[in-house]
Amino acid sequence: MSRIARLAVALLITSSVVSPASGQELQPVAGRSPSEGQRVVFVTGSTGGLGREVARGLAASGDHVVIHGRSVERGVELVAEIEAEGRGSARLYLADLGSFDEVRSLAGAIRRDYDRLDVLVNNAGIWLEGPRQLSDDGNELHFQVNYLSSFLLTRELLPLLRRSAPSRIVHVSSVAQQPIDFGNVMLEDDYSDGRAYAQSKLAQIMFTFDLAEDLAGSGVTTNAVHPASMMDTDMVLERGARARSSVHDGADAVMYLIDGDDLGTGGYFNQRTPTRANSQAYDEQARERLRTLAERLTVAR
């Protein structure tokens, strides 16, 4: 058994792998606190695919990475890999972004366990084939996981990001963008998984533009990025599609937005190139309608 495998087994044995019950605080599953002076980067959806590659790159640069996902085995394996390499450090939290309660618990745990947050990467996302599905909160599942939960998580962590300025927020979006029909946001009529995915990704970009205006002068910048097309991720391969790029290609683009100089704020990038998004992203009235909807849907009940 390799050193990493032995460490992963040890972490699994010592970790408490449970989701918090109602009223209980979410606890980290594995890992350790950052060292003094380490940059703290939170990457959602980082137990696999693009997020995992980004997390590995950050740790290799000496950063502390907050790992998030739903798979304890893959998460613990990643923490063990990072610890074995000995450059960076990591800590793992489990949460399902299909539940606003779990998003709030996740944000609360980050605020409790960290006194700074230098970068938030909203990477977690889904594209599910088949019939329309609803989240635990009754929303179309792509719209919640890809947009509403990142909206809620970001807002919950803004005080920490502001205190840590200069800091950054990166939204991992897509060139697949479709205008939002505000009369049919949850796609109860004329549903397709491609449409659900594409409108949720445009919503991310619209949120990025709004957020940049709200945070002007705060020292917190935010940009959105299409990392690469048809990467060799499970999400692509499980659809029977042929990969046209690698997660390494995508991670390079995300790392550019994390580390790049003079990027400004409120932009949308196709890999490393500033690019114009779908025209609805520049419609202030549409962005206001989307923001009002998101605030209403994510309010604690």
How is this structure best described in words?
This protein is an alpha/beta fold and 301 residues long. It has a domain at 95-298: NAD(P)-binding Rossmann-like Domain (Rossmann fold), CATH 3.40.50.720. The chain contains 9 helices and 9 strands. Strand 3, helix 3 (72-85) and strand 4 form a beta-alpha-beta unit. Helix 1 crosses helix 3 and helix 4 (100-113) packs parallel to helix 5. It is globular, with a radius of gyration of 18 Å. The model has no long low-confidence stretch (mean pLDDT 91).
What secondary-structure arrangement, pairings included, does this model have?
Blueprint: H1 3-14, E1 30-31, E2 40-43, H2 49-60, E3 64-69, H3 72-85, E4 89-94, H4 100-113, E5 119-122, H5 141-163, E6 167-172, H6 193-214, E7 220-226, H7 234-237, H8 247-259, E8 267-270, E9 273-274, H9 284-298
Parallel strand pairs: 2-3, 2-5, 3-4, 5-6, 6-7, 7-8
Antiparallel strand pairs: 1-4, 8-9
Helix pairs in contact: 1-3, 2-8, 4-5, 5-6, 5-9, 6-9
